[in-house]
Amino acid sequence: MKRREFICLAASAALLPGAASASMPEMVVHKDPYCGCCEAWASAFSDAGFAVDLRNEDDMDAVKSKLKVPASIRGCHTATVGGYFLEGHVPLEAAQRLLAEKPALAGLAVAGMPRGSLGMGTDPGASYDVMAVPKDAGAPYVYVAVRPK
Q1: Dihedral sign (CA 58, 59, 60, 63)
Q2: Cα angle at 145 between 142 and 149, to 5 degrees?
């Protein structure tokens, strides 16, 4: 590789999303101490440039209740980032969109532990909804529909 090609490549890499972790907000991930999928999910956010603080919790229901995560759409772990909660296996792209658009939401949620969702392995047939939870306690609605390509 020539010097000029290397410089161009390095400069373009610096412009990629997630390249500047200093601009990414801190994310706190509350999880059960024995859960491995939570760590895989958090690792994907860390790899994307988020400063991730993993916290083992003995009472996840208390964490979810404090953040007012509706019981009907609770998932595995609960994260907070940029003034929002991310409940369960929310895809990286949905979280990035949330943080870029800054809608009047309390957070996003993926109910349960869908096969093929972020942290739950790969499944080209993955199909699940990312729900938006309004701040005003209105009904959750579909923010992103994840469907097979």
Answers
A1: negative
A2: 175
The string of DSSP letters for 49-87 reads T-EEEEEE-S-HHHHHHHTT--GGG-BS-EEEETTEEEE
Per-chain mean pLDDT for the chain: 85
Second-level CATH architecture of 23-146: 3-Layer(aba) Sandwich (3.40)
pLDDT at 59 over 90: yes
- pTM as predicted: 0.82
pLDDT (0 to 100) of residue 36: 82
Q: Which residues of 112-132 are buried (b: 16+ CB within 10 A; e: fewer)?
A: ebbebbbbbeeeeebebbbbb
- Residue 54: is it exposed, middle or buried by C-beta count within 10 angstroms (0-12/13-18/19+)? middle
Neighbours of 81 (CB within 10 A): 22
- In terms of Cα–Cα distance, which of 99, 110, 100, 147 is closest to 132? 110
CB 99 within 8 A of CB 79: no
Q: Evaluate if residue 4 carries a pLDDT over 60.
A: no
